[in-house]
Amino acid sequence: MRTSNIAVTTASALLAAGVLAFGRPAVGAGYQINEHGAIGTGRCGAFIGTANQPSAIFHNPAGLTRTEGTQFMGGLNLILPSATYVGRGRPVEPTPEVVRQNTESFVAPVPYAFVSHALSKNAFVGLGFYNHYGLTTRWDNPDEFVGRTLIQELSLRTFYLTPTVALKLTESVRVAVGVSLVPATVSLTRVIGAEDNGQVLFPSRDGGPEGSINIEGSAFGVGATAGLQADLTENLRLGFTFRSAIDLSFEGDADFTLPEDTPASVAANFPDQSIDGDLTLPHTFGLGLGWVAADWNIELAAQLTLWSAFDELRFNFDTGRPTPTSVVDRDWEASVFYRLGGEYRFDRFKVPAAIRFGFGYDVTPIPDRTADPTLPSNSRILGTFGAGYDFGLIRADFAYMILFVLDREITPSDENVTFPPTTDMDTVRYEVGPIHLISLSVGVAL
User: Fold this and answer.
1) d(Cα 376, Cα 142) in Å, to the nearest integer?
2) pLDDT category, 407, cuts 50, 70, 90?
3) Can you tell me the distance from the alpha carbon of 333 to that of 320, in angstroms, rounded to the nearest whole number?
4) What are the structural domain ranges in the chain?
5) Which of 31, 59, 284, 339 gets the most CB atoms within 10 Å of its CB?
6) pLDDT for the residue 92
7) 3.30.720.120, 1.10.3720.10, 2.40.160.60, 3.30.43.10: which CATH number matches 3-445?
8) Segment 312-370, tens digit of pLDDT
9) Element (H or E) spanning 229, and its range?
10) Residue 213, beta-bridge partner list
11) Which band of pLDDT confidence, cut at 50, 70 and 90, is reported for residue 28?
12) pLDDT of residue 324
């Protein structure tokens, strides 16, 4: 086994932590989470031109100018992911058979909270807390998973804290700006081996655990947000929103666990040490055009994410072992998320109520060449439904989303060398979903 393969794969451990893993419950392009608030989620995120709740801090901060008094909104997303690898089994077997291996079933809770306050009829402030990128994956039977030299268990968290100021410039033009303070953490466990063929560097000889690496790291970044809403006519509203890229410089520790019979001269090349690496969360642009009537509204929206900035990931090992620096290609592409959603309002038992719906299509940014078990997701189709009651002081909202990810088949070739573990197989197939998301929100108006 080539030392360069081992070095690159050890570095790819942090790569996987940076880009999040296959099977993660993120429900947007790449590893985004765009569902923050049951009102917007019930409309599949088509809530840019017509945003008018405290959760506008995420969807379009200019929408804060459509709130009144002081309002609080808090809630929780419950995400139920599922994913399957279909392909050849462990390459150490004489004739690997086609196997199906699944991610572990679990429910991922993702909280969010927003507050808005009207300083005057033209000036508004707000504060949002949400997790825009990340989440967790765990593989069933991680010691047997064919991709265990890439990932066994992984977690990425980004915690956005976004203070925002919004101004009503005229009766028809509203603007907002904000700052996002983003602490982030990563954690990864995987077997040490070569990513291009799945071979384990330190196989167990007595039935015990194979050699492994665990990485824990943290980072802090700062970004900006901006929003615009314009009333083109009495009923037609245009919205634009922007979230800047955020550079995260991770620093952490890499801890190696080797079999007891590993020669000391070999183990010396895998010392526990500090490690650092960089990850850029991309620029995003949103545009929405909505029609608002007395009892209903509907909006067509799109979001552009400049994933093309994610062309490679570079990492440094403090001791220079097993390699000083490693670079892993990603070559992601810019992608667009299209959305159509709406809301119908009515009285139910003398209480204002609403029902919501939405549809979306999300284009994957990941090319076949770099798709692997760390994130082999594909383009996806979304459908949503929601409902809410407004009791005056308190409002309650519910949303459900189902997400269908198109199956992805990859055939080994000179242009696809990242994975699978053998080069003589026909295809690898990744089956993701359906992914289910339930969002519950409670709001208080003072």
Assistant:
1) 18
2) confident
3) 32
4) 3-445
5) 59
6) 52
7) 2.40.160.60
8) 767 788 998 888 876 667 778 899 999 999 999 998 777 899 999 999 999 988 887 77
9) strand 212-231
10) 190, 256
11) low
12) 83
DSSP3 helix / strand / coil % (the chain, rounded to 5): 10, 55, 40
Three-state DSSP class for residue 62: helix
Give the ranges where 21-104 is alpha helix by DSSP (H): 38-42, 56-59
Rounded to an integer, the average pLDDT of 236-250 is 95
The average pLDDT across 380-404 equals: 94
The whole-angstrom separation of Cα 273 and Cα 210 is: 20
Residues with Cβ within 8 Å of 349's Cβ and at least 6 positions away in sequence, in order, are none
Dump the DSSP string for 366-407: --GGG--TTS----EEEEEEEEEEE-SSEEEEEEEEEEEEPP
What is d(CA 62, CA 65) in angstroms, rounded to the nearest whole number?
Answer: 6
Question: Do you find a cis peptide bond into 421, omega within 30 degrees of 0?
Answer: no
Sheet holding 408-410, edge to edge: 98-102, 83-88, 428-432, 408-410
The tokens of 276 are what? 């650092």
Rounded Cα distance between 414 and 211, Å, is 30
CA proximity to 162, closest of 286, 36, 25, 27: 36
Say what the pTM is.
0.86
Classify 300 as helix, strand or coil.
Answer: strand
Question: Maximum Cα–Cα distance for the chain, whole Å?
Answer: 78
Q: What six digits make up the tokens of 195?
A: 């990513």
Q: Which two tokens stand for residue 393?
A: 């002081």
Backbone phi, then psi, for 262, in 5-degree steps? -70, 125
Residue 374 clears pLDDT 90, i.e. is over it: no
Between 221 and 378, where is the model more confident?
221
At 179, list the tokens: 């700052």
Contact 329, 370 (CB under 8 A): yes
How many CB atoms are closer than 10 A to CB 141?
Answer: 11
| Chain centre distance of CA 49 | 23
Question: How far is Cα 207 from Cα 219, in angstroms, rounded to an integer?
Answer: 37
Rg (CA), the chain: 23
**C-beta of residue 396 within 8 angstroms of C-beta of residue 124:** no
